[in-house]
Structure formats: C-alpha cells, structure tokens
Design a protein that fits this description.
This protein is mainly β. Helices cover about 0% and strands about 55% of the residues. The chain is built from no helices and 11 strands. The strands form 2 sheets. Strands 2, 4, 5, 6, 9, 10 and 11 form a 7-stranded mixed sheet that branches. A 4-stranded antiparallel sheet has the order 1-3-8-7, with no helix packed on it. A hairpin with a 4-residue loop joins β9 and β10. The termini are far apart.
C-alpha cells in the first residue's frame, strides 16, 4: 500500500523550531519528487517546499526561504521539514505530498501552531 505517515508538529513559541517527518512506504522513494504544503486557518493550500529526490534539487516558497529546510533520508524512506525562526503566520496544518510519479499521494496532515 502506498502511503505517507506524518509525525512531528505541535505548539511552539515565535522564534522556535520544529521538525516534521513524513515516512513513505509502498513506492520507490528515492526516485520521487516530494513536497510540503500547508493550509492556514480559513485559507487555501499553500505550497511550501519541494525536493526532487533523484536530483537532490530543493525549492522553497519566498515566505519560508532561509528559515525552512527540506531534506530526505533515503535509507529510512523519510522526508523532513526543519522549520526554524517560526512566525505566527506559519501556523497551519502541514501536509507532505508525493508530486511525482503520478498519482499524487498525501500524508494525513499535522498541526503546527506558533504562539506565545
């Protein structure tokens, strides 16, 4: 079964850090393109970051560039999002996503709340 299982997240103060994890199974993770997408309360989906695992190329939204780092551990079939210098506007439900190959696969989502 193809699936993505997320962990991490929670409540953190502004300026703090969190790491999200996304464990993949049922497909060739090392040949996939993966992303993180978030949805803030009352808003639509916002792309955060992508990694083309087979090329090790990474991409970031301007809103998180320099603060977030996407990475993978192919030995563990796991995608990560290290989030530093968190701001209140980073509060959202975060989803990991397989961009390719098709079809898209989504994690279950994890809440990140940045608040003092």
């Amino acid at each position: 079964e193809v699936q993505l299982v997320q962990s991490g997240g929670g409540l953190v103060q502004p300026g703090g850090s969190l790491r999200l994890s996304c464990a993949a199974s049922g497909f060739t993770f090392s040949s996939s393109a993966m992303s993180w997408v978030r949805q803030a309360p009352g808003k639509g989906l916002e792309w955060v970051s992508s990694i083309y695992n087979y090329m090790s190329n990474t991409y970031y939204a301007d809103s998180v560039k320099g603060r977030f780092t996407i990475s993978t551990d192919n030995a563990k079939n796991t995608l990560y999002l290290q989030m530093n210098s968190l701001k209140s506007e980073d509060t959202a439900v975060y989803y990991c996503n397989r961009r390719s190959p098709n079809p898209a696969v989504w994690g279950q989502g994890t809440q990140v709340t940045v608040s003092s």
